[in-house]
Target: Transcriptional regulator
Amino acid sequence: MDKRYTPLSPFEEIEIRKALLDEIREQPGMSLMTALRTLRTRTRLTVVEYSRMTGVAERTIQNIEAGRVSPTIKTADKLLQPFGLAMGVCSKSNHLK
Model:
């Protein structure tokens, strides 16, 4: 956990994660780059911690979050897995609502 923040209680952590997942679900048109950065930063993970957790190189995470590269589906799944999410497909009409 990023040392710049005061530690949260387990209950507070769960509530933050629930709210974050609801926010992500409400925006199916959100770019993968934005979703990954939002998930990582709002759960207070540093790039180093996220890298260790997922097995994805730090530089790769930084490049994806900055929009310099697009991840493979396998890499995206690795990055989404800790949050209980996976890559998927939605129709255009779903994210235009």
Observations:
- The chain has a mean pLDDT of 87.
- DSSP finds six helices and no strands in the chain.
- The two ends are 35 Å apart (CA to CA).
- The chain has one domain: 10-95.
